Amino acid sequence: MAPASALLLTRLMLQDFRSWPSLTVPFSGRIVLVTGPNGAGKTNLLEAISLLGPGRGLRGARTAELGRQVGGATGGVALPWAAAGRFRDPFGQEFDLGTGTPEDGPPERRILRLDGAPVRAQSLLAERVAAVWLTPQMDRLFQDGAGDRRRFLDRLVWALEPHHAREVAAYDQAMAQRNRLLAQERREGMRADAAWLAGLEDAMARHGAALAAARRGLVARLNALMAEGVTGAFPSARLTLQCPVAAALAEAPALAVEERLRADWAASRGRDAAAGATLIGPHRADLVFTHAPKDLPAALCSTGEQKALLVAVVLAHAGLIAAARGFAPLLLLDEVAAHLDATRREALFAALAELPAQAFLTGTDAGIFAPLRGLAEAFRASPGASPGQLVADMDFVVPDAL
Amino acid sequence: MATDPNPIEHLIGLLARLPGLGRRSARRAVLRMLMQPEQAMLPLAEALRAAAAAVQPCQICGNLDATNPCGICRDSQRDQGLICVVEGVSELWALERAHAHRGLYHVLGGTLSALGGIGPEDLAVQPLLARIEGAAEPVREVILALPATVDGATTAHYLTDRLRPTGAQVTRLAQGVPIGGALDVLDEGTLAAALKARRVV
User: Fold this and answer.
1) A115 and A198 co-located in one domain
2) Is B118 on the interface with A (CB under 8 A)?
3) In angstroms, rounded to a whole number, what is the distance separating the alpha carbons of residues B138 and A260?
4) Once rounded to an integer, what is the mean pLDDT over residues B160-189?
5) How many CB pairs below 8 Å do chains A and B form together?
6) In this structure, what CATH number is given to the domain that contains residue A369?
7) Strand A359-363 with A330-333, pairing
8) Quick check: A83 pLDDT over 50?
9) What's the pTM?
10) How far apart are alpha carbons B82 and B69 in whole angstroms?
11) Are A256 and A220 members of one domain?
12) A196 vs B192: CB contact, 8 Å cut-off?
């Protein structure tokens, strides 16, 4: 029996979505497990669920890429696609949410329907559904540049503060214009208009201080939640936002920080022109993960420990969304158990069983999910001969109805 | 269509290029006109010809009118010490429809955009400064009625700097809750702006 505050997906229907020609599957478990070999379409299933909410889903894909391809690898066309979910909200109310490309519309246009009526604003969607996810691609966060970690953090902020995306875009746009003016000055040897540069730096300061404050606030709330032990027996992470702007906001009012940013940028025009880039600002921030129990930076942790840190952050994020929205978001955990040892896996499963959220897990090997027997509803996906099949896995006893 | 001199298709093609009209609505408009060429078509043709011949940008403010200077600039009843700067003629007309501004206007002709290749020299900034310097009656206030976008805000900041030596007070439009609007449907950015711009009642 699920706690009252979980949002539940009780049915998923797909039509020509990625590898799935057609699928209708009811879900009755609070933990849903999908196993199958590579290429069986497990991640596509999670992606479809992730698209039933604000944003571009867990792959960040363009709408035109999502239709099932027919006509071979070269010169193939993507079919119009649809994905629809039936949800039950924490008050027991059911609603249907569908998305896809219109039959007669352009393939890059995506429509959203809530109980059959068009959804005009993503913010309305955010009030009803939310999902957080963890994919194998995110393992690279610890190797890649700071940009990926920054985008990861911005996506976490955005899920709670939809306005954040606009602050980031406005900041980036103003900075791109400043860089363009400085590059022109350098190329043409002509002095760039100082008042114009000051106008752009003013926009950067206003939006930059706002987005740094939002990032800082989220990191603090995530850390507080992880320190409280929201992740249960799961090793928790500590996040550090490395950003001078965010640090300055801890000591001075936002207006003073904006003032200082404007002055710093005005003073560094020559250096930035020579570098061909703006060298200081919140666009240079980095997010550092630390393994809290070991007090060890993530970069020095093993692959499995890094995965554990990401799981901890995602679980804490789900907790924040639950607190803000009044319902726990869907957890989409793609291939999450593979890198974890048996102890950690069991800690993860225990944490999931404790959380008031519906979780979808995928994996190639059903065996490692054995501890979930009696807790999870399980399906097997199979590629090839009969695509689009999702068969109940009878090794797992279907748990009590929701 | 270039090889086909069909006048109906030619007319639909011309109309469909106008903003707000697609081929479908152009076809409907043409069909309606062709049903009543005397009443609906020839007067329109005459009106188009007359407007094309008479209307020109105002040499002072940039508004479009059949007289030059335009009717607003020639109206001595309007406050000559108050100039409202707008991005384009469309914004000027919107403000005129509201009957809220009793001063004069200045059409900028766009906003600064380094990425779009629009610099200060592409906008009517110099004419604005020259106009304020040479005004018979001193200009007390310049209202910046520019869009609430990054480019609009950058342009406003730029103009504020350039207008400082003129001694005119520079103001900008308020941002916040629309009239008749409920708070709970406003986006976070607008709500934050409205809260920042609150005032004592």
Assistant:
1) no
2) no
3) 36
4) 90
5) 63
6) 3.40.50.300
7) parallel
8) yes
9) 0.83
10) 17
11) yes
12) no
Domain shared by B12 and B40, yes or no: yes
pLDDT tens digit sequence for B124-139: 999 999 999 999 999 9
In a domain, A157, yes or no: yes
CA distance A101 to A94: 24
A121 CB-near residues (< 8 Å, 6+ apart): none
CB B34 within 8 Å of CB B43: no
State whether residue A211 sits within 8 Å of chain B by CB.
no
How far off is chain B from A167, nearest CA to CA, in Å? Answer: 9
Residues A132 and A17 in one domain: yes
Helix intervals (H) in A161-193: 164-188
Whole-number mean pLDDT of chain A?
89
CB contact under 8 A, B114 and A180: yes
Tell me the CATH number at B132. Answer: 3.40.1360.10
pLDDT digits (tens, 9 = 90+) for A217-258: 999 999 999 988 777 777 789 999 999 999 999 999 999 999
Q: Model confidence at A351, in pLDDT bands (50, 70, 90)?
A: confident
Residue A220 inside a domain? The answer is yes
Same domain? For B36 and B106 the reply is: no
Query: What CATH code is carried by the domain that includes residue B47?
Result: 1.10.8
Whether residue A294 sits in one domain with residue A155: yes
Evaluate whether residue A366 is within a structural domain. yes
For residues B44 and B11, membership in a common domain is answered with: yes
Q: CB-based burial of residue A140 (10 Å sphere; 0-12 exposed, 13-18 middle, 19+ buried)?
A: exposed
Q: Would you state the pLDDT for residue A388?
A: 59
Each residue's pLDDT tens digit, A197-214: 999 999 999 999 999 999
What residues make up the domain containing A378? 1-142+327-402
Task: Give yes or no for B60 touching A (CB within 8 A).
Answer: no
Bond preceding residue A107 cis, omega within 30 of 0: no
* Chain A CA closest to residue B156: A199
Closest Cα in chain B to A168: B150
Q: Do A177 and B115 touch (CB under 8 A)?
A: yes
Domain boundary among the residues B16, B33, B54 is at B54
pLDDT at site B3: 60
Contact call for B153 and A178, based on CB within 8 A? no
Same domain assignment for residues B102 and B44: no
Tell me which of A76-80, A236-240, B145-149 is least confident.
A76-80
- The Cα of B198 is separated from the nearest Cα of chain A by a number of Å equal to 17
Same domain, B79 and B19: no
Indicate if A293 and A150 belong to the same structural domain: yes
CB–CB contact A174 B154 (8 Å): yes
- Which chain B residues contact residue A174 at CB under 8 A? 150, 154
Closest CB from B112, B153, B187 relative to A196? B112
Domain count, chain B: 2
Mean pLDDT, residues A127-131 taken together: 89
Assess if residue A311 is contained within a domain. Answer: no
Residue A237, token pair as written in the block:
């992470």
Inter-chain residue contact B114 with A181, CB threshold 8 Å: yes
User: Does B59 map to a domain?
Assistant: no
Instruction: Count other C-beta atoms under 10 Å from residue B65's C-beta.
Output: 18
Same domain, B103 and B138: yes
In this prediction, residue A102 has a pLDDT band, given cuts at 50, 70 and 90, of confident
Smallest CA–CA distance, residue A177 to chain B, in Å, is 5
Give B70→chain A minimum CA distance, Å: 30
pLDDT surpasses 60 at B35: yes
> What residues make up the domain containing B180?
64-200
